[in-house]
Amino acid sequence: MTETEKALRETFRNMNADHAQQIRDAYYKAVEGLQTLSDMLELADAEMPVPTNELLIGEHLLACEAMTTMRKSELGRVL
Q1: Concatenated DSSP letters for 28-67?
Q2: d(CA 35, CA 25)
Q3: Cα within 13 Å of Cα(35), Cβ side
C-alpha cells in the first residue's frame, strides 16, 4: 500500500459518511460512463456508411485514454 493510498483511506475514514458515499457513487458513475461512451463511439464509427475521417474513433480513443488515467488513480482502490 502506497503512502497516498494510506492517506486516502484515512481521509475517507474520517469523512462524513454521506460525502464519502457521494464520492464513491460519482467515481463509479464516471468510470462506467467513460466505458459506455467509449463503446458507443466505437460502434457508431463502425456503423457509419461513409468514413468519418476517424472523428468518432478519435473520440473513442480519448475516452479510452481517460479510462486509463482513471485506472492510475489510487482512489479506485480505496473506494
Answers
A1: HHHHHHHHHHHHHHHHHHHH-SS--TTHHHHHHHHHHHHH
A2: 15
A3: 8
Per-residue exposure over 4-28, b if at least 16 CB sit within 10 Å of its own CB, e if not: eeeebeeebeeeeeeebeeeeeebe
Taking Cα atoms as reference points, which of 44, 31, 2, 67 lies closest to residue 23?
31
| Identity of the residue numbered 35 | Q
In whole angstroms, give the CA distance from residue 24 to residue 12.
10
**pLDDT tens-digit map of 26-64:** 999 999 999 999 999 999 988 888 776 788 999 999 999
Coil, strand or helix at 12: helix
pTM: 0.81
